[in-house]
Structures are given as C-alpha cells and as structure tokens.
Amino acid sequence: MWSAEKKGFKAWLQLEKSLSAHSVDAYLHDIDKLTQFLSTQSKSATPDQVQPEDLSALLRWVNELGMTASSQSRIVSGIRSFFKYCLLENIVKQDPTQLLETPRLRRLLPDFLTVDEINRIITCIDLSKPEGERNRAILETLYSCGLRVSELVSLKLSALYPELGFIKVTGKGDKERLVPIGESALKYIGIYRHQVRVHHKIGKGQEDILFLNRRGSALTRQMIFILLKNLVKEAGIKKKVSPHTFRHSFATHLVEGGADLRAVQEMLGHESITTTEIYTHLDRAYLRETLQKFHPAFQNPK
Known about the structure:
- The protein is mostly helical.
- The chain folds into two domains: 3-88, Tyrosine recombinase, N-terminal domain (DNA polymerase, domain 1); 115-292, Intergrase catalytic core (hpI Integrase, Chain A, Orthogonal Bundle).
- The chain contains 14 helices and three strands.
- The chain has helices spanning 3-15, 21-40, 52-64, 69-88, 115-123, 132-145, 149-153, 183-195, 221-235, 243-256, 261-268, 273-276, 278-294, 296-299; strands at residues 160-161, 166-170, 176-180.
- A three-stranded antiparallel β-sheet has the order 1-2-3.
- The longest helix has 20 residues, at 21-40.
C-alpha cells in the first residue's frame, strides 16, 4: 500500500533532509503503521483521501495497543513529515495533520553524574593495559565536549585542532559544528595518539579515525557502552550510566556554572533551543535541593 509514495518519501528524507539510515527507517515505520491501520478499517484510501478523523482514529488505535506517549508522538511526527512531502510533490492538496494533536509528553530530567563521580569512573581505568590510555582519552573527550556516542566513535584525526582548542564534530544529519575541548582531554588524546595509536596496524579506510580497537578499526557504539558499564560497576556507582549520561553531565555542569543557554545549545548541536531548555529545569531542581539541604528556613520549618 502506497509503495510509490513511500519510495519517494524515502528518497526525500535521504536527499533533502540528509537523515541517517536509522532515522529514515523510523519514519517509514511510522507510515507503515498508518497504512496498517487503514487496512484494519477496510480502507484502501490514497494519501489524498486520508481525513483528519482517520488520523485521530489511528492515535486512539495505537493508544489501545498500549504504546507509550513518546511512541505515539514519534508516529505523529513521522506522519506529519510524510504529508509535508506529499504537499510539496502535489500528491495531496491539503494537509490532514494540521489539527492533529501530539500526545503530551512528560519531560523526564536526564540523570547526570557529579564531577566526583566522573573522576571516580576515570580513576578505575587500568592504565597498565594496552587500551587503558585510549579509554582515558575517550572518557575525557566525552565529558569535555558533550559528544553523542556516534560522534565520538566517528571522530577524525583531521577534525582535531589542538592549537586552537577545538574539535570539528559531525552530528545528526551530517551537520558539522566546532566544539571547544579542554586541556585535560587534549593531553590524554595526545598520549594515546603518540604512545599507543602509532603502534597499531591500522585497517584500510580507518587511517583518519581517532579511536581504534585492537584490530585497527573504528570502535562500535556497543564497545563504549560496555566499557562504561564495567567502569561504573567498579567505581561502585549505582546510577544507570551510559555514554549519554556524560553528555547530560557536560550540559548540566555548564548550566549550573551559569553558561549561556544558546552557547550550550551550539556545543550540544541541538537544532532547537527547547531541547536544551530541559537543563534549566534540571538546574532549578538542583538549586531547590541545595536550598533544602543548606538553608535554615528549609531545614527547620515552623
């Protein structure tokens, strides 16, 4: 159902929107949900025959299936993008998603680590092992720059500008941004490059990748998750920690220190400032917690 429209939508997402293969698959899956629903209703409607009430019924259907609000919101986003494409290509004359309401999401404050916890994790790295210096450089870079794990594993030697104190990061949609990098991270990257990496037999096509595995190839996302999981356990930290936790910690510590939100947005590579604003909420929670802990009026209520 709608095979030609889906094929065109896929090409539009890839070429016009420069989305990753994972994101494209997610969008196409959203449209599959819509066509699947229409089939259950015995409707063989073309895109221009879809009505707002059909989409409202779709949301009731996925809600009854037990989908979370975030999953429902994801489907709405995908369908909106599809009909935007259809309008541009004159496949439809009107957008049936205009009045479609997105399920309200409960904004969860991301978990983050304290500076002491980050230091405890890094201290657990065994520098006597061949990969020790690399792992130290990885965690220093994650925290210093607030990178996504995908940005970390694809970081290139040619994207390092140590004399300027910046690195060039390729983020979502292949968008590039310059991010400041701390002296500590640069120090350990230097140790890894000049004392460890130079002794690797580097795989073909991997010459410009900064962080390599023992076979001379780029690290996988899973390897970073496993590395952190083991170190967090050894450090005795009970929080659920992932590479993204380091990114959240980077942003949280900046906001707590009084950093301008626009600057944090730029460094994180957020397209919208509203994504970055979650850290202001976290900061307020931190401030209230500090008051409750240290202010006499909070400690001794009358």
